[in-house]
Design a protein that fits this description.
It is built from 7 helices and no strands. It has helices spanning 4-40, 50-75, 79-105, 136-142, 148-156, 159-187, 191-217.
């Protein structure tokens, strides 16, 4: 009974010392983890980067492609063209949604005050020159986009004239998209952006061949 009072202060001191060491160890681990996390955090594309510019401009491009593809899908009687237009609409709708998501993830706005394709100016092969010197209509033409009048004409056309007009417009549209995809592969930093861009190059190149074949089969003029 006389030894118990002597042992208790020693036990309390040991328990307190262990608790302090545990707190210090946890604090050290948290500090190391935080420092590691800060160092390992990946850099995000800037608002003027090629990756962000491509995501914005290709959304504009894809939106019109989907509109045209759904228009001809609705009224064509050509089975091959209907299947192709469906593929174009669904593929580009999915890609457009992913591009929107990239900008959200990067904390960047969906639009930019810069003219279209400004991000491509650093490319020797794919640059459209000084985009600030071009009008919006000229920039849209450089991208292979259809004009409002051409879209209205497609909406009004029926039968083979509608099929042929769609093919003419979409061939030009694809021919404008492929250099954009090649430019971001050259200039961008995001692996997923480059992967999607390569999918666009490969897929739309194959679709160009298919559309040229359909155009020949339908005896489209021009």
């Amino acid at each position: 009974m006389t030894d118990a009072p002597v042992a208790r202060p020693a036990v309390r001191w040991i328990v307190a010392a262990v608790a302090v060491l545990a707190v210090v160890a946890v604090a050290f681990a948290i500090g190391r983890f935080t420092a590691f996390g800060a160092t390992a955090a990946p850099a995000r594309p800037s608002t003027t980067s090629a990756d962000a510019g491509f995501a914005r401009d290709m959304q504009v491009h894809h939106t019109q492609a989907v509109l045209m593809a759904m228009e001809i899908y609705r009224k064509t009687s050509d089975d091959e063209l209907r299947a192709l237009s469906y593929d174009i609409a669904t593929a580009q709708s999915g890609q457009r949604g992913e591009m929107f998501g990239w900008l959200v993830e990067w904390g960047l706005p969906q639009t930019s005050p810069q003219p279209l394709m400004t991000w491509m100016e650093a490319s020797d092969e794919h640059s459209h020159g000084d985009t600030a010197a071009l009008s919006q209509d000229e920039l849209m033409a450089e991208m292979g986009m259809a004009t409002d009048a051409e879209i209205a004409q497609l909406q009004e056309a029926e039968g083979r004239p509608a099929d042929c007009l769609f093919l003419d417009l979409m061939i030009r549209h694809h021919q404008g998209a492929i250099p954009m995809a090649q430019a971001v592969i050259e200039l961008g930093d995001e692996p997923r952006v480059a992967e999607v861009a390569q999918t666009i190059v490969t897929g739309q190149s194959a679709e160009l061949d298919a559309m040229q074949d359909i155009r020949t089969r339908l005896s489209c003029g021009g």
